[in-house]
Design a protein that fits this description.
By secondary structure, the chain is α/β, with parallel strands linked by helices. It has helices at about 1-5, 20-30, 45-50, 75-85; strands at about 15-20, 35-40, 85. Helix 2 links the parallel strand 1 (about 15-20) and strand 2. It is elongated, with a radius of gyration of 14 Å.
Length: about 100
């Protein structure tokens, strides 16, 4: 999708996502050079929250195998804040919704 937008002349992309879609926007933002800004609402705070919780509202498919052996979402959020103008979740009712 991002390459298609580039083929139409769009040079910079702002990804905005909510809930489960925030995970795709998080990884798309950190991996693609055309993404210049990322806004996330009601996204997962950390994969560790799923791993350490008995009750959670996120599907296990959102937790990639062995990801915590390498990094967690706060690591990616720091990189996005440093490089892509991350606009974190600041709305009422926000949170990880584990």
């Amino acid at each position: 999708m991002l390459d298609w937008l580039a083929s139409l002349g769009h040079r910079e992309v702002h990804l905005a996502a909510k809930g489960w879609g925030a995970l795709a926007a998080t990884f798309g933002g950190v991996l693609h050079d055309r993404v210049k800004q990322v806004t996330l609402k009601q996204g997962l705070t950390a994969y560790a929250e799923i791993a350490e919780s008995e009750d959670y509202n996120w599907p296990l498919s959102s937790l990639p195998p062995a990801i915590l052996a390498r990094f967690d979402l706060p690591d990616i959020y720091r990189e996005l804040a440093r490089t892509k103008k991350l606009r974190p979740n600041r709305d009422a009712g926000s949170g990880s919704q584990v």
